[in-house]
Amino acid sequence: MKRLLIVLTVLLFAAPTFAAHHMPGKGVKVQPARATWNTGYFQEALVRAGLQELGYKVKEPKELQNPLFYQSVALGDVDYWTNGWFPNHVSQMPKGWEDKVEIVGYVAKAGGLQGYLVSKKEVEKFNIKSLDDFKRPEVQKAFDANGDGKADLTACPPGWGCEKVITHHFDVYGLDAYINPIKAGYSASMADALARYNAGEPVFFYTWAPNWTIGKLKPGKDVMWINVPKIIPSEGQKAGVDRMTVGGIEGAVTDPLKAGFVVSDIQVVANKKFLEKNPAAKRFFEVFTLPLADISAQNTKMQDGEKSKKDIDRHVNEWIANNQEKWNGWLEEARKAAK
After folding, report:
1. Residue 10: inside a domain, yes or no?
2. pLDDT value of residue 19
């Protein structure tokens, strides 16, 4: 009887400790953010689900423009997001960010390819190799959908990092008189471009990978990546200038491709104090990673109409079920970090 009491006493005192390690985030409220582009919603929802399994009380994400997020995370108004693109976003960070903000892990290493694509039929018809070819009258006319005499480019909404780079390109390559950048909501603008393509009309658009766009309009088959005339980095791109020319890109008009955008790593960005207080969350951020193909596949589902919160939650649950061993391993790594 005495031995049984000893065993029961040990278990009684050990149980809370085990539970605390099993749910290291118990009682901690977390405020995530997410970017305004919906192709990043999936990874945000997955990370949120991971933290919830670790016991954190994770609030619904605040949807923020890039500069506002980086200010907010530095101030501690939000704790993290999964939508950092580096080095592309460095220029949008507030002064002194290194003391308050940390870039953690790799959601998708070298996952952020960006550039300009043109319908393959017109690439071949007009021998389009770079943005300079849109200065030719016959090319402008072919891509002029609104009758203003300029080629129409589906570009980026104001506030996005890519919008600043596209504006830089227009300045250094002298494109204002030849190309009209459409800066409305990106998803709606790209849906219009896809409809035009399906109707047999030319398309010219900016995009990035991972994205549903290159699931619907496949590089090499439907569209082609084109070059910038020459590499002239903006101030914010100078640190990554060696990553603006990339080789081996499927569907590029040349190899290597002068993309004009820095190939970025997609990473978690978090408040340093939050990370210091929550080693389990930090470790989960460090080990979490997604194949580009999985992100693009989910993005395509969203574009096909599965875009409600309920749909995205289902996509998250399906992905976890299909990758349960990997998921459990990430959670175990996070729990170990909290011990």
Report:
1. no
2. 47
Helix (H) or strand (E) holding 212: none
Same domain, 122 and 215: yes
Provide φ and ψ at 302, rounded to 5°. -65, -45
Q: Let me know whether 178 and 189 are in one domain.
A: yes
- Whether residue 13 is contained in a domain is answered as no
Burial class of residue 244 (count of CB atoms within 10 Å of its CB; 0-12, 13-18, 19+):
buried
As a whole number, mean pLDDT of residues 30-34 equals 98
Q: Are residues 272 and 317 in the same domain?
A: yes
**Burial classification of residue 158, based on how many CB atoms lie within 10 Å of its CB (0-12 exposed, 13-18 middle, 19 or more buried):** exposed
Instruction: Please calculate the CA angle 122-125-126 and round it to the nearest 5 degrees.
Output: 85
- Confidence band for 8, pLDDT divided at 50, 70 and 90: very low
- The sign of the CA dihedral 213, 214, 216, 222 is positive
100-112 average pLDDT score? 91
Examine the domain organization and report whether 254 and 270 are in the same domain: no
With respect to residue 98, please indicate whether it lies within any of the assigned structural domains. Answer: yes
What is the tens place of the pLDDT at every residue in 269-308?
999 999 999 999 999 999 999 988 799 889 999 989 999 9
Please state, in angstroms and as integers, the Cα–Cα distance from residue 87 to each residue in 51, 91, 327, following that order: 26, 8, 28
Q: Rounded to whole angstroms, what are the CA distances from 94 to 70, 74, 106, 327?
A: 7, 8, 22, 34
Nearest CA among 140, 113, 115 for reference residue 128 = 140
Residue 221 belongs to domain spanning: 112-263
Q: Is the pLDDT of residue 3 over 80?
A: no
Specify the pTM. 0.73
Residues 6+ apart with CB under 8 A from 251: 117, 218, 219, 220, 221, 223, 224, 225
315 shares a domain with 259: no
Place of tokens 């016991």: 55
Quote the number of domains for the chain: 2
Give Cα separations from 45 to 8, 54, 131, 232, 237 (angstroms). 40, 14, 37, 37, 29
